[in-house]
Amino acid sequence: MVRRWTFAQRVAAGVSACMLAGLLLLATLLSAVHGLLTHTETSRAALQQALLAGCVGLAGVGALACVLHHALRPLHARNEHSEQRLSLLMEAVTDYALCFLDRQGHVTAWNAGAERLTGWAASDVTGSSLERLHPEDAVAAGVPRIHLERAAREGRLLSEGWQLRRDGTRFWAETLLTPLQDSHGRLCGFAKVTRDITERRRMERAQALFAEAGRVLQPLSGAREVGEALTRLCVPEVADACILFLPSSDGQVRPQAVACADTQAATRLWEPLLRCPNADEVGPSHVVCTGRAELLPELDAEHPPQALHGTAHGELLRVLGVTSALTVPLAVGPRVLGALCLLSTGTRRYGEVDRAFMEELASRAALALDNARLLAEAQGALELIGVAAHDLGNPLSSLQLRLRRLRLMDVCAHEPRLRDGLVGAESETRRMGRLLHNLLDLSALSAGPLTLDREKVDLATLVQEVAERHTDQALAAGCTLTVQVQEDDTTGTWDRLRLDRVVTNLLNNALKFGQGHPVELSVHGDDTHVRLTVKDSGLGIAPTDQQRLFHRFERVRGRGNDGHPPGSGLGLYIVRQLIEAHGGAIHVLSRVGEGSEFTIELPRTLQGRAHMSLHVSA
Predict the structure, then answer these.
(1) Which helix (H) or strand (E) holds 429?
(2) Beta-bridge mates of residue 485
(3) Burial of 493 (0-12, 13-18, 19+ CB in 10 A)
(4) Helix (H), strand (E), coil (C) string for 264-315
(5) Measured between alpha carbons, how far is 366 from 223 in angstroms, rounded to an integer?
(6) What is the pLDDT of residues 223-239, one digit of tens each?
(7) Backbone angles phi, psi at 278, to 5 degrees
(8) Phi and psi, residue 481, nearest 5°
């Protein structure tokens, strides 16, 4: 392949040829002059001809030199123009730091943007090493040298990292390093473009921290767990030490959770932390009282502000050698639940942007704390409901037995009004018993994962026992109750008491809304599952109501207006929860005016929880 010469190379070659020809002609002229002075007339004539030829040749060389001079002038002007444009470009770019380096990484050019970004003037850094702009830990790790080598090897290098300003502060920089090569491909130096992306990185970190806070804080159920997770989340991401303060029962604001990056400093902070500050002192107590954040952007441990003298918070800052502090309230609406204190012992300085960011994070943490409080109160209420339902169950069972005995006495046979009254009272006690059992199941389900007492159970036998218990209720409702059991094996490893509750709830609903029509219970099994179907021919359920039928406290529209008292909306919800706890599923098929058919599927062996499968038929 023939190599192309550039214009500059061709001009240089021509100048070199002209200089060589001029030297040869000059030597010839000098030799001719010397011969004229020393030789005879005959030889003089020949020397005069040679002198004339040399003068003509020298004139030609001079003419060629003039032509080359005129050819080089535009090239020189173009070079000056390029240098001017480069200089103007470097001076015009102020949002980016632009500099040129030699092969060893020493600064050869420095623009106004670099001076504005770093504080270093061109005269301060020209000729110095690039390592001057990097932190000591990065220089010790050889980061500047590694970046130059990678850029030269890969053709360009885009990197991010901390860099230093003249005043010693750091900024997060995005740097593009590009190698510069001559026409022969030899490395001449590097061009470096840098911009400050500290705010962009702050926003990215804020979004990541918010996402992590949502993931970590929401599943927690206690104030202590929320506090510990919150302080761990902030250290070392946004603080060197973080303390969560919450009001105690005596009204004093005390530390609830502490996280510190320096384990040795953590042992020194407890003494000032345990002091009880006054509400009017600068610090977390004042933040809790006022609901306003406190920002201390610059602190000198040797000369703290006057407001911190003699205070517990000031002693804490002095002991840790804090250089910047930020305390934000944890508020939900007008209520202040506590205060989050962020402490910096290094080069980090808090500002208004950090204040706004931490106030948003604190509000999310406050919601988590409030949710934990509400959850604890709800758990307490559910436990109270469970205890009350359990305590009411014993006297209610005794009352049911007494009413049944009275109804079966001979005196009731001669007193129809007394017999009817006892039947109604017995029905109401059964209804109250079902409600108490539902409340007990709801309390158990809300307390956490349900623990099942597994044993070998024959579902067909269990269904027949439940049907026998409801014979009187079926007669009172005017419904014919039948149980169909196939010859299949209907046994499995289940919780007998919980399945009794499932069958009882489904049968009660069928008798209640069957409107005097027959109610059928059928049990059959296959190799892996046993199925129970409860079918009535009563009111039926609309498709829109079937969607929410198994939700808590949901009642179907139109039911309860036919003389039957409205239900609590817990029966089918508890049925679904108990079936899913066995790893089974429940389905419903229903048409308005044609009745409903509920089918439960139970795996023969106990499995984990499964999702409910709700089938809707128009």
Answers:
(1) helix 416-446
(2) 523
(3) middle
(4) HHHHHCHHHHCCCCCCCCCCHHHHHHHCCCEEECCCCCCCCCHHHCCCHHHH
(5) 10
(6) 778 788 888 888 888 88
(7) -80, 155
(8) -105, 120
Contacts (Cβ under 8 Å, ≥6 apart) of 158: 174, 175, 176, 177
CA distance 9 to 13: 6
3-state secondary structure 523-582: EEECCCEEEEEEEECCCCCCHHHHCCCCCCCCCCCCCCCCCCCCCCCCHHHHHHHHHHHC
Q: What's the whole-model pTM score?
A: 0.50
DSSP type of residue 106: B
Report the half-sphere exposure of 54 (CA within 13 A, side-chain side): 18
Instruction: Using alpha carbons, list the distances in angstroms from residue 405 to 399, 424, 426, 474.
Output: 10, 14, 10, 19
Buried residues in 106-120 as b, exposed as e (16+ CB within 10 A): bbebbbbbbbebbeb
- For residue 546, what pLDDT is reported? 79
Q: Return the closest-CA partner of residue 539 out of 479, 586, 464, 469.
A: 479
Tens digit of each residue's pLDDT (9 = 90 or more) over 310-340: 788 888 888 888 889 999 999 988 889 889 9
Residue 239: CB atoms within 10 Å: 26
Backbone phi and psi for residue 331, each to the nearest 5 degrees, phi listed first: -125, 140
The 8-class DSSP code of residue 334 comes to: T
Q: What is the pLDDT of residue 8?
A: 57
Token pair of 347, please? 């080069």
Q: Could you tell me the two tokens for 103?
A: 């092969």
Other CB atoms within 10 Å distance of the CB of residue 211 = 10
